[in-house]
């Protein structure tokens, strides 16, 4: 090829690049979480990169910080169009999203972050009533994430059930409140963002939370003891919730590409929140002189037994509160999916890349993006 031909090829490529850039569309995205939280650097930042990659630059992003929209304002931001893609916490709106509320009631069943993320993703994507309530809410679901298994983060040593009695513990939801009351503690409803202040002022004696909260919310300055026992995970999330009008405006190919990007980012989030960040927090805690201990075996066994018994409580509550006549069947289906994905996660060694592939094959590859979310 002569010099003139090469020049034409370069010019054509340059022209295509300019055309793609000119046609690129910016989506406004928001994690709603503080800078140290994994949902920033390990969910929304990779999602932005993956989205541009999966759409060949057709869809790019502008990230809005908490000074524009926080977690508490995310519903309104999505419904008014301020945000195209946002980190929605469905448990803030149980009446409108009862299927997520049911999942949230099963928090104590969680053990493995990748498994819980995948189980809720499959449950929500394939559940017609879940899709109906999300549609009525004006939002499209693109997957979930999960924390590591919760622990007791306290000012005083806790080894057995007797040590818990009388403590005031921050509860992130009804299952944790039931757990605290069962073991003689007092649950206190405090926003995770207000945990530091509540503990420093003596309003609470500790928190039932991810060990990562030691770093994400500065609790490392106050906590003196971490007790490990079966306390479930926080997984009732909708990580990359998309406003329905935004979704409807995308081509079928762009929707599928967006789902691919979300699937990759959700796995990043679970990997960080459920595995990597807790390991970093544990190391920091030990360096800070915090005691980390396994619960007394009898206490751990009692906690595990309560988690199983609490599944029926979750079904009963959902049936009464939301009129779910099939609540018991839904609980059984969700537990079946949890067991399925726990086995898969164990099979692949909790490998992030393998989970991305399996969730796509098992869930998203079966979705018709011409109709999903519409």
Describe the structure.
With 374 residues, this protein is of the alpha/beta class. It has a single domain (87-248, 272-374), classed as Bacterial extracellular solute-binding protein, family 7 (D-Maltodextrin-Binding Protein, domain 2, 3-Layer(aba) Sandwich). It contains 15 helices and eleven strands. It has helices at 3-23, 38-54, 74-80, 98-105, 113-126, 128-137, 161-164, 174-182, 195-200, 213-216, 244-248, 252-287, 297-322, 327-347, 352-362, and strands spanning 25-30, 59-63, 85-88, 139-140, 151-154, 168-171, 186-189, 206-209, 225-228, 238-243, 291-294. The strands form two sheets. The chain has a six-stranded mixed β-sheet with strand order 7-6-8-5-9-11, sandwiched between helices. It has a five-stranded mixed β-sheet with strand order 2-1-3-10-4, sandwiched between helices. Residues 1-21 have low confidence and may be disordered. This is C4-dicarboxylate ABC transporter substrate-binding protein.
